[in-house]
Amino acid sequence: MKLKRVHSALIAAALTCSMLVTPVYAAPTLDELQEEQQDLENQKENAQEQLSSLQSQLETIMEKINDLEEQLIKKGEEITQAEKDLEAAEKKRQEQYDAMKLRIKYMYEAGSGTATMEKVMESGDISSMLTQAEYSQQVHEYDREQLQEYANTVAEIEELQKKLETEMENLQNLEAEYKEQQDELDATIASKRDEISNLDGMIQEAAQKVAAEKERLEEEERQRQLEEQRRQEAAAAAQQNSGGGSANNSDSDNGGGSGNGGSNDGGSNSSGGSEPGYNVSTGNAVVDRAYNQLGKPYVWGAVGPNSFDCSGLVGYCLTGRNARIWTSGSFAGWPSVSNPQPGDVCVISGHCGIYIGGGQMIHAPQPGDVVKIAPVQSGMWYVRYPG
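-> structure tokens emitted (387 positions)
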């Protein structure tokens, strides 16, 4: 038994500690909500400026890539021409070499070589010998010059081709770098656009919060004024009843009693009036519509059919259509009831729900929550839809 008490004490202590450390956050004020909205708008403006700068950089990179592609096309054409020139030079050099071999072969076969020279020397014709030697030397020098010229041409073309190929490779590498920068900019721009889109959603949500807070404050002010008006009316009625009772008592006891009774009835009617009649069918239809919305998410300003805020849910349940049927403070003009029935509206400053009986209501509580059943909140009063 003692052990059970100790165990219970430990559980109670743990619960107490958990309750002590549970943080309680105050609802943001209107100024704080407006400041948050302005901060989000500033962030969006900065993001749009960054996006504009990124797009300018991307346009510059695209222009450079286009220029490089034109250079690559031109360089490719130059390489192709160099290959053709090299092929032609090689062919010409081969032709010249073949021609030289034929000349040498002809000279020797025609006796203009060593054999001819021996004949000339034997005959003692020095003039013919000199002529033949000079001709052989001229042919040799011509062939050698031609071969050297074409060899130089081939070397120049080969050097040009290597240079063009190196330039082509450099241009291709530069193009690859530019395209990599383009891909990075494309990814950054897409990310920045997503950021702006998210900011748009956050700004819209912040604007809805600001509007809702303004509506709540306006409603509080209207309720305060209404309460003040009621207090003044009650004070005036009490003062009137007090004055009427004294006057009647001075005349006669029976007359005074009758006069007081009439005055009290009149005061009650002037302050509250009689409750409106209740329609069971209408009330049940309202409750049925409310049950059908259970589990749907809360969204600021939503009036259905897939999401609701508190007043959007009440409007949908009362009318069966996706529209808000009142402005802020309209509940103050609806007939209040002291004996609520299913289908009546539970109201408190800044919030409302559909009464379903048994002290329970169906309402859309807050952002991040869903339409659900909950006990009627303390301080709520009940009104009946006049439509």
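The beta strands are 336-337, 345-348, 351-357, 360-363, 372-375, 381-383.
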